[in-house]
Amino acid sequence: MHFEESDEHRALRAAVGAITDGFGPGYFAEHSRERRPTTELWQALGRHGYIGVNLPEEYGGGGGGLVELAIVCEEVAAHGCPLLLLLVSGAIAGEVLTRFGTAEQKSTWLPRLAAGRGKIVFAITEPEAGSNTHRLATTATRDGDGWLLRGTKQFISGVDEADAILVVAKTGTDPDSGRGRLSLFLVDAADPRLTATPLAIEGSAPERQFTLFFDDVPVSAEQLIGTEGDGLRQVFHGLNPERVTGAALGVGIARYALARAADYARTREVWGRPIGTHQAIAHPLAEAAIEVELAALMTARAAWLHDAGEAMAKAAGEAANMAKYAAAEAAIHAVDAAIQTHGGNGMSRDYGLVPLWGMARTLRIAPVSREMILNHVAQHTLGLPRSY
Amino acid sequence: MKIVVCVKYVPDATGDRGFNDDGTTDRESVDSLLSELDEYAIEQALKIVESGVEAEITYLTVGPDDAKDALRKALAMGGDNAIHVNDDDIAGTDALGTSLILAKAIERAGFDLVICGMASTDASMGVVPAMLAERLGVPQVTYLDEVTVEGTTVKGGGTVKGRREGDVATELIEAALPAVVSVTDRTGEARYPSFKGIMAAKKKNVEALDLDDLGIESDQVGLSAAWSIVDTATKRPPRAKGEVVEDEGEGGVQLAGFLAAKKFI
Ligand SMILES: Cc1cc2nc3c(=O)[nH]c(=O)nc-3n(C[C@H](O)[C@H](O)[C@H](O)COP(=O)(O)OP(=O)(O)OC[C@H]3O[C@@H](n4cnc5c(N)ncnc54)[C@H](O)[C@@H]3O)c2cc1C
């Protein structure tokens, strides 16, 4: 066993960090306040091959895996610019298309994703189906060679920035279990029969969330990803990477917050000595630092298991859940301790910590909630009875 | 043709740098990296090749084990291969000794053009390029803000042309190759390594050499052979607080007064 990071991974961190520093937390804060996409940063990372690190080389990607994408995700966040859409465009859409897309779908989409010139966002959540995907009510009904999509999706991030949306819809019902048979479709984000209404989400971030209404949106056979009816299994090939990159995002946010807090605690003097001298300030930061380090280890392991392929799929699922759990908790604790360390400045706009708290807090709910992860671990890791 | 770019592994200029008791650079307490000023030299070498000049780019560094990081970063930006001169006896070597080691390594590798940064970000003496040219017996064209190579053939030859921006004049300088040039931070921003570049760097060859390989005796280099010695070092005083002027309608006048007092206007 060895835990030393390779020269390439260290170089990857350094390069992504340097590119992100060219924009910086100020750029991110401004775009967050105005809810304006961070297109310039995304494209700069894309030009240097970092958005598409995990995509195959033959389609313009870097030929790396989820390990590398997670590093990118962590580093941009650790340098003050957490990029939420890496989770959906890079992790879910990238991994699902690479694995299940046809040669034509791959050559149409992957080079654009890899270069940072196009984004695909992801729509699974519905008003009546968040944690419980079996209740999905968006249907794709056969219509000649294709389908008509009908239904409502909610909380869908980045629709305004996207070229296409990867939509999970019901194409049938399993006669035995009565559960929906799901399929994946790639829908043009500008389809006239699709209405996207921005949702008012608190906590500032550059990305917006939308409610989508599909009013019999026609989709052709070329827009079906993978096999009809096999969507649930297929989408898990993307949901685990989403959890891993979500975890990496949490680790990055936490590292950034702790670095700011440590700087502040070293320099801010209240009773003639730096506040970091007081254990009441130092210990919560130290505790968070330990949690972050543990979460980072689990994130790296989960990414590695995913990259190791089908044989490791079960272990990868469990590790991805645990990593996401640990990283969300670590990020919340780190940002909260950082805010407390800053006193009144913790709440001021200039220090930019409250938006990070919003993001860390979101990570406890999305992409999968803390409770659903605990359910999974209780049932699958510990063999306890299922509660729902 | 063959371009050798000299790069140095230095303590991070944004860190809290200092000296050891013997006056040598403290490399322990601050992380080191590829000198930022050398990134401009790398960028210019890559630009020369991109402009259509057929050339092999070799990076050369003299430094401890970790200095290979500087070479890896350079190779990730582009170029072909690298040479790492590393020997315990090199510790404490000054500019004169360094130029000897560099010159021997460059002669061994062969060269048409040597590109250096204008100075290192640690010692900042800026004398190595000139010393190197002298030792190699070729022209030096230093402190260039712009550099191009013309008229090279497979047999060699060609010229290096450059522009040097001074306070009172702009000089256009050229030299027949082989030559040594140094470039400033005004030559244009250095590129970031791409992911493909990082992965490709892994496969590029880094040749490790020691003093024996270069035919240099250990008493020719190192702290004991140094001609320049750091006698004492004093920490830069903390920056004094600036003067804050509340603008109550007189801000412009006060600003002009401040600039005039400092002889800016
Ligand atoms: C900022 C943001 C961005 C998002 N982006 C996207 C996106 O791009 N695409 C997309 O498809 N979705 C997106 N989502 C949606 C997100 O994935 C869901 O909100 C999340 O999966 C939870 O679903 P829900 O909101 O329906 O909560 P519900 O499923 O209604 O759950 C409510 C609460 O009940 C708990 N609960 C539910 N079932 C159980 C149980 N069996 N045991 C114990 N507790 C339970 C949950 O843990 C939760 O705390 C986003 C959400 C946010 C906030």
Summarize the SSE layout with pairings.
The complex is a heterodimer of chains A (388) and B (265).
Chain A: H1 7-21, H2 24-33, H3 39-47, H4 66-78, H5 85-100, H6 103-115, E1 120-123, E2 139-143, E3 146-157, E4 164-173, E5 180-188, E6 194-199, E7 209-219, E8 224-225, H7 231-267, H8 279-307, H9 313-341, H10 354-363, H11 370-381
Parallel strand pairs in A: 1-4
Antiparallel strand pairs in A: 2-3, 3-7, 4-5, 5-8, 6-7
Chain B: E1 2-6, E2 9-11, E3 32-34, H1 36-50, E4 56-62, H2 68-77, E5 81-85, H3 95-109, E6 113-117, H4 128-136, E7 140-144, E8 146-150, E9 159-165, E10 170-176, E11 179-183, H5 195-201, E12 206-209, H6 211-214, H7 251-261
Parallel strand pairs in B: 1-4, 1-6, 4-5, 5-12, 6-11, 7-11
Antiparallel strand pairs in B: 2-3, 8-9, 9-10
The structure holds flavin-adenine dinucleotide (FAD).
What this model shows, in words?
- The complex is a heterodimer of chains A (388) and B (265).
- Chain A is of the alpha+beta class.
- Chain A contains eleven helices and eight strands.
- Chain A folds into three domains: 7-119, Butyryl-Coa Dehydrogenase, subunit A, domain 1 (Orthogonal Bundle), CATH 1.10.540; 122-227, Butyryl-CoA Dehydrogenase, subunit A, domain 2; 232-381, Butyryl-CoA Dehydrogenase, subunit A, domain 3 (Up-down Bundle).
- Chain A has helices at 7-21, 24-33, 39-47, 66-78, 85-100, 103-115, 231-267, 279-307, 313-341, 354-363, 370-381, and strands at residues 120-123, 139-143, 146-157, 164-173, 180-188, 194-199, 209-219, 224-225.
- Chain B has 265 residues and is of the alpha/beta class.
- In chain B, the strands form three sheets. Chain B has a seven-stranded parallel β-sheet with strand order 7-11-6-1-4-5-12, with helices on both faces. Chain B has a three-stranded antiparallel β-sheet with strand order 8-9-10, with no helix packed on it.
- Chain B has helices at 36-50, 68-77, 95-109, 128-136, 195-201, 211-214, 251-261; strands at residues 2-6, 9-11, 32-34, 56-62, 81-85, 113-117, 140-144, 146-150, 159-165, 170-176, 179-183, 206-209.
- At the A-B interface, helix 1 of A face helix 2 and helix 5 of B.
- The structure holds flavin-adenine dinucleotide.
- Flavin-adenine dinucleotide (FAD) binds next to strand 1, strand 3 and helix 11 of chain A.
